[in-house]
Amino acid sequence: MFRSCTTPHDVNLASWYFTAPAGDYDIRVNIALGDTWAGGTYSVSIGGTEINGTTAGTGGPNNSADQIVGRVHLSGGKQMLSIKPLKFAREGLLDLHAITLTTARAE
In whole angstroms, what is the distance from residue 27 CA to residue 71 CA? Predict the structure, then answer.
């Protein structure tokens, strides 16, 4: 998704709208990234909360892996989730395969 951008300013953000019941959710991104490209940062915004993440290498562009971004509480109803680049470690940030929200388990 953000791989072809040369600076974080080339892309403002990518956003999706969806409906979710109220609750606590874990945010995971599924990305592919060469190990030498790791260390870039991005922001995920949802439900009035912004959580920053740092990319970790997955062994290459053909090896995707889930990375936990954080936990968020959502009020029920229509939601908007956005992801935007903050800092690139090299020429690109990540190959985004999916962003998944899963119901958080009690700790």
Answer: 6
Structure-token match 């929200």, residue found = 101
pLDDT of residue 37: 87
**53-83: per-residue pLDDT in tens?**
999 999 988 999 999 999 999 999 999 999 9
- Phi/psi for 10 (5° steps) reads -70, -25
Query: How many Å apart are CA 86 and CA 45, to the nearest integer?
Result: 13
| Secondary structure class of 84 (helix, strand, coil) | strand
Q: What is the pLDDT of residue 4?
A: 43
Residues in Cβ contact with 59 at an 8 Å cutoff, skipping those fewer than 6 apart: 34, 35
pTM of the model: 0.84
Contact in structure between 31 and 95 (CB atoms under 8 Å): yes
Q: Are 64 and 1 in contact (CB under 8 A)?
A: no
